Known about the structure:
Helix content is about 40%, strand content about 10%. The protein has 6 helices and 3 strands; from the N terminus they run E-H-E-H-H-H-H-E-H. It is globular and about 45 Å long. It starts with 11 loop residues before the first strand and ends with a helix. The model has no long low-confidence stretch (mean pLDDT about 95).
Amino acid sequence: KHAAKKKYEQVWCVFDKDDFPAKDFNDAITIARANGFGVAYSNQAFEYWILLHFIDHQGGGMHRNDYDSRINQLLQPFGLTYDGDGSKMITEEIFELLIGVDEQTGLSRTQLAVNRAKRNYIQLSHVNPATEESSTTVFELVEEILKYV
């Protein structure tokens, strides 16, 4: 509906895999792209994108139910907690950390996440995105946003 109003230069669909059937997930990507929409998906969950800000997780081996506890382990040294089971809110403090500088690399955590996600994505075939765990195209949306910052 919003895209039909032609008020926007771009429309992006942002979603994650969760327990949706593979066909539904893959069809959502195909339909969105066929309509000229950007697609920022995460498989299995959006929290994978958050993890990439802190660790170089290269896919597989972690179920989405484990993301929240792992994120909280990574946030603990900063005195922060992510409520993934409840609100899923990215608080201002967490957001500032996500866009902040990683002390070990000197890069922004956002750039680290983009680099990691892009590298992981390039290694996959994309024939069946529903089976490509863990992967995300959120980096494409973030790269687009960063053009305007």
